[in-house]
Structures are given as C-alpha cells and as structure tokens.
Amino acid sequence: RAALEFTGVSKVFDTGTTALSGVDLSVAPGEFVAVVGPSGCGKSTLLRLASGLDRVTDGTLEVAADTTSFVFQDPTLLPWRSALGNVALVGQLRGVGKKERTARAADALALVGLTDFAKSFPRQLSGGMRMRVSLARALVADPQLALFDEPFGALDEITRLGMQTELQRLFQLRGFAGLFITHSVSEAVYLSTRVVVMTGRPGRIAADIAVPFAHPRS
Ligand code: ADP
Ligand code: ADP
C-alpha cells in the first residue's frame, strides 16, 4: 500500500487560481521522491495537501502513514527551549511521559550528532545546527512519511552539503517514505529515488523519473 497517493487531484484557491490540476502521484513506503519545478508551479501546494494543512478541491488524497512530519526551510524552534526541549515538545504534545519523551529526544539528537548541544538554546546554535535540531524533531516520532519544503534552501553551501549527507544517512537508517521540494536538480538526484518534474499554469506533473543510480534503501 502506498504511503501517499494523489489521484486526479486539483486545487483551486478562492482567488480562482488553479494551483494543481489532475495530479496523480503515488509514493511507496521506502521511496524518497523529489519535486522540482519553477516557482509558482504548485510544489508547496502539493506538500501542504499531503500534510493535511490544506484540502483538495477535486480528486482523492490518501495518506496511509499514520505519522507524518513536516520540515520547513526556516526551522521554527522555540527560542526559550533548549535543543532537547524543542525535540521533546513533540512527545509532550502527544502526551508521552516526561522520562520517555526526554530519552527519545536525546536519542534523536544523538542521531544528528548534537548530544553535546542538547542544553544549548537556538540562539547559541549555528544555522546548520538549528536545521539538525529541526530534523531530530521531525524524526523523533519515527514518522512513516516525512515532508520537506526546501529544507536546505537557506543554508550556505558547505552546511548544505553536510546536511544532505546527514539526511541521506537518516533516510537509509530509518527507511521513512519522503517527499521533498528542492530548487536544486543535483540535490534531487543525489537524495531521491525518484524525481517528479512539475510545470505551472496550471500546476501539473510533466515527468516522473526513477533515479537510475539511487542509493539502495533498506
Ligand atoms: P511553488 O511552491 O511551486 O512556488 P505554490 O504551490 O506556492 O507554488 O503556488 C502555486 C500557485 O498557487 C501560484 O500561482 C500561487 O500564487 C498560488 N497560491 C498558492 N497558495 C495560494 C493561496 N493560499 N491562495 C491563493 N493562491 C495561492
Ligand atoms: P515558495 O515559492 O517558496 O513556495 P510562495 O511565496 O509561493 O513560496 O508561498 C509562500 C506562502 O504564501 C505559501 O504558504 C503559499 O500558500 C502562500 N501564497 C502563495 N501565493 C499566494 C497567493 N497568491 N495568495 C495567498 N497566499 C499565497
């Protein structure tokens, strides 16, 4: 069964803009799908629908995964909470007991190499480190489906290369299904198992290409 399945999906906003038209897209468990295309072609709309932040106008959308997490370009961390506190908040909101959510948050921070910075506050961390905290927060609940809206778009190139390697490793380790937007074709090919190319006016899928030399997934 697909982790995520769009069938004939259209999205028309109140303004009359048709952001998506007749989109068919299926993401199988263990697949990591990159979405590329020019600004305004409907990439964010596609992701917002997948995340449940917005509703389809027409067609059907099925999300088999019961846990979905979303990583934005600008990691919105709570400034008054430590790195550990930010990651543990996910468990707190789900009613997980303090001891367990703290232990899980510590594990997630270890996964992204931030054990030594667990007690640091966001302002004390670099942009790359904040992005790592955001990744730890996204993965702490062990999502079956992870959505990324240009996660590394705001990072400098060296940090971005490090984070791409990091995400690649996490993806192989955890095996979640993923859908991510990127403006970088090389990032799409490096990280994904499939690249979906969109065009605009109205937004639709123009090509759906398997990456021939994708890294093997567990
Ligand atoms: P992309 O992420 O590829 O840049 P978007 O999904 O943000 O594209 O936007 C697709 C189209 O839908 C654009 O024409 C955009 O202006 C329009 N759009 C996006 N969100 C809204 C909204 N909330 N209300 C009206 N129009 C929107
Ligand atoms: P990007 O191109 O990086 O995806 P956008 O500027 O298209 O970013 O969109 C940023 C936010 O503004 C999104 O949440 C989108 O839904 C919203 N948005 C985009 N276009 C419009 C619009 N024409 N009217 C209302 N909201 C919009």
From TrEMBL:
Entry-linked InterPro entries: AAA+_ATPase, ABC_transporter-like_ATP-bd, ABC_transporter-like_CS, ABC_transporter_ATP-bind, P-loop_NTPase
Transmembrane segments: none
Transport among keywords: yes
One GO MF term attached to the UniProt entry: ATP binding
Keywords associated with the record: ATP-binding, Nucleotide-binding, Transport
Domain ABC transporter intervals: 4-218
Protein name: ABC transporter ATP-binding protein
Organism: Cryptosporangium japonicum
SMART domains documented for this protein: AAA (SM00382)
Keyword Transferase appears in the UniProt entry: no
